[in-house]
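Input (structure):
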């Protein structure tokens, strides 16, 4: 019996996979005697509800006919076990999906509904959050009011817990809480997750946040949420619940315990059957589990990763992880996993692999590691044998001085060696890279660009971004060491900090690296994992690379047009992973100001994404607007014809 609890994952995040927190917290609560726990992925439900022909047609002014006409087919492709693996179809469906997200928020410049984006509002104070909730409700307002909240409340939960790992969920979480309060003020609303933990100072400084929340939990909350549910059920003294902050009677009551850490072996296996797995927008769901928590290195100057500053690095016993995997496979039939922890030691990746091999789990998995000296070809071979198909590694920079300044604890040579080892073992690598670290020069950024370009055959995907100063990162705690002046009081900022820099330049490195991996604008990490699991390392690189044969130069009179199936898009990719098409850069001045802008040509028929240089873009835009002759345009036309983006019209020409 216990307490009727509903745990909610609010929009907006990736609707292709379940986040790991709810199935774990749900299993903990059930084991603790709260049988009536329900999990609701309102992110998935919102995508499913809003990105349909009817709601889209209602907001379309006719200019978006392609989106309305193709959304049903795109939804089908994303879930289809055959068509999903056809890159041309997947690209098309993803593009329509992104455009539909833009369309549903058309006319509301402050919001964009998409994976990892919703409101652009800042949220460093109660006033800012209240302003966003009052003025930027967008399409979620009606959806929460008429559909989501009535169905949440139908079960009469006494506790609703909001899970907030992504910033793109923050304003929607407050909007949702507002609506829950309006429809039933007696339900206790709590929240947790990395974003809530990062914001604890802002949240505790102002009792008015009690407008939305009755409480929130800080840090890892598996055991503490259970204790809190017990206390609401009258089975535990509320004063004994650790790491909870409560809003009561106009006051804020903190019960923080900075020494708290959980023994990971205490946890049950996550229960993914509590979510409607078949409804996600993917033919298979990547199952996220965290075998370790925290970071054993914990030094990188720029990093404030989730909870690494709160609790130390720990690993769950490999045998138990293998049992968890086996139980998820048996109960769901899923066989692609993501062991995406904050980071894992080479020795732990090896012991996890050995446990999986011993348990004979037949899965493919993605993991995360550092460019660490403990890696050897044997470790990678064991990992590959145990199903590892992909790793995320923070490369950040390939310049010795910048790496030292970041205290990254690795070298370009070690990176090159480890990339080669992964390649030999058959493991694809996604490399995180960012530019504009304070003091970085253009020449140093150039080293990184060359490194990535020259290792493109062993880097399957690059996650390129620009430096942002984050609260809690070592560089923010010792700014003078790095030649920066922090302009904000960190206690009054939720996450980002403004700063001034003595030296350093904006290098444009991230955009240039993005051009080496144009597919990143359309293909998200979970799809990349599924493709690697199915087709082997660097799957998208192999599909998208190529281009046509060298062609003879065209006569000046040749009449040209865009090849069939080619569309051009200005794409903005934010550090958060959000993607917007054809937007005006200035309209994203808020949270996403560090976005990269490139123009891509999407060639549906040959399933390719081409990045365009300035000249190529000019020529193609001109062709898209009407016909033109080769002689009128630049010499770039020959290259574009060779790439298959431009065709010479039949019967025309010299
Ligand atoms: C797995 C993972 C992914 C996976 C899957 C994501 C998913 N939808 O599930 C993948 C690889 C796809 C992914 C991608 C990205 N991710 Co990610 N990801 C993670 C990671 C490493 C683990 C998440 C997880 O499964 N945790 C396991 C659960 C059990 O832990 P948890 O969510 O923290 O939950 C615990 C507590 O927070 C709390 N809790 C959680 N919910 C609730 C609810 C209540 C009511 C309560 C009381 C408590 C509570 O209790 C739980 C148990 O202790 C986190 C880092 C982290 N340590 O959380 C980053 C993280 C969530 N990702 C992050 C980011 C930024 C990204 C990217 C957007 C990065 C990028 N720029 O590309 C990309 C998106 C890529 C793309 N373009 O597609 C950030 C999010 C913060 C932000 N800035 O918005 C995080 C926090 C990493 C970080 N920087 O610290 N990610
Ligand atoms: S960037 Fe990775 S290795 Fe460095 S401190 Fe953060 S989590 Fe640890």
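Output (sequence):
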């Amino acid at each position: 019996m216990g307490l009727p609890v509903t745990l909610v994952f609010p929009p907006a995040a990736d609707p292709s996979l379940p986040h790991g927190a709810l199935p774990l917290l749900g299993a903990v609560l059930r084991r603790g005697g709260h049988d009536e726990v329900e999990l609701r992925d309102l992110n998935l439900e919102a995508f499913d509800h809003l990105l349909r022909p009817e709601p889209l047609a209602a907001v379309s002014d006719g200019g978006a006919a392609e989106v309305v006409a193709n959304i049903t087919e795109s939804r089908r492709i994303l879930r289809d076990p055959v068509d999903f693996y056809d890159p041309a179809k997947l690209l098309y469906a993803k593009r329509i999906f992104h455009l539909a997200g833009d369309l549903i928020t058309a006319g509301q410049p402050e919001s964009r509904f998409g994976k990892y984006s919703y409101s652009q509002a800042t949220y460093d104070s109660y006033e800012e959050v209240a302003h966003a909730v009052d003025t930027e409700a967008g399409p979620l307002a009606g959806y929460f009011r008429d559909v989501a909240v009535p169905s949440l409340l139908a079960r009469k939960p006494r506790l609703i817990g909001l899970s907030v790992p992504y910033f793109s969920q923050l304003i929607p979480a407050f909007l949702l809480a507002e609506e829950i309060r309006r429809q039933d003020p007696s339900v206790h609303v709590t929240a947790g997750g990395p974003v809530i933990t990062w914001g604890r100072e802002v949240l505790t400084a102002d009792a008015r946040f009690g407008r939305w929340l009755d409480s929130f939990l800080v840090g890892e909350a598996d055991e503490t949420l259970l204790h809190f549910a017990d206390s609401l059920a009258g089975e535990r003294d509320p004063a004994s619940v650790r790491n909870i902050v409560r809003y009561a009677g106009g006051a804020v009551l903190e019960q923080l315990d900075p020494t708290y850490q959980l023994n990971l072996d205490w946890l049950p296996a996550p229960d993914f059957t509590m979510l409607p797995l078949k409804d996600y927008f993917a033919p298979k769901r990547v199952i996220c589990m965290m075998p370790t928590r925290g970071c054993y290195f914990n030094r990188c100057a720029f990093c404030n990763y989730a909870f690494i500053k709160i609790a130390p690095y720990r690993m769950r016993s490999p045998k138990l992880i293998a049992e968890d995997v086996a139980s998820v496979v048996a109960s769901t039939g899923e066989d692609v996993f993501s062991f995406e922890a904050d980071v894992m030691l080479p020795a732990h990746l090896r012991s996890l692999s050995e446990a999986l091999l011993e348990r004979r789990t037949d899965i493919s998995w993605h993991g995360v590691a550092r460019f660490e000296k403990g890696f050897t070809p044997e470790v990678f071979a064991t990992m590959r044998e145990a199903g590892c198909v992909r790793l995320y590694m923070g490369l950040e920079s390939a310049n010795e001085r910048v790496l030292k300044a970041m205290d990254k604890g690795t070298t370009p040579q070690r990176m090159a060696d480890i990339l080669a080892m992964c390649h030999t073992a058959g493991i694809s690598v996604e490399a995180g890279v960012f530019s504009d670290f304070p003091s970085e020069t253009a020449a140093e950024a150039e080293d990184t660009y060359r490194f990535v370009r020259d290792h493109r055959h062993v880097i399957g995907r690059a996650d390129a971004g620009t430096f942002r100063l984050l609260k809690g990162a070592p560089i923010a705690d010792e700014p003078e060491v790095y030649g920066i002046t922090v302009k904000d009081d960190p206690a009054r900022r939720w996450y980002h900090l403004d700063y001034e820099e003595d030296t350093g330049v904006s290098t444009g490195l991230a955009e240039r690296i993005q051009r080496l991996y144009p597919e990143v604008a359309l293909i998200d990490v979970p799809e990349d994992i599924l493709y690697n699991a199915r087709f082997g390392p660097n799957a998208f690189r192999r599909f998208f690379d190529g281009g046509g044969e060298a062609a003879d130069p065209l006569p000046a009179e040749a009449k040209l047009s865009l090849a069939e199936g080619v569309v051009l898009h200005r794409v903005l990719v934010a550090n958060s992973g959000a993607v917007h098409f054809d937007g005006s850069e200035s309209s994203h001045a808020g949270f996403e100001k560090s976005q990269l802008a490139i123009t891509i040509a999407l060639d549906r028929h040959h399933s390719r994404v081409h990045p365009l240089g300035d000249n190529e873009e000019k020529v193609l835009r001109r062709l898209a607007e009407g016909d033109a002759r080769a002689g009128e345009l630049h010499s770039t036309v020959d290259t574009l014809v060779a790439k298959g983006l431009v065709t010479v019209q039949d019967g025309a020409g010299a």
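Notes: The radius of gyration is 25 Å. Residues 336 and 530 are 7 Å apart (CA to CA).
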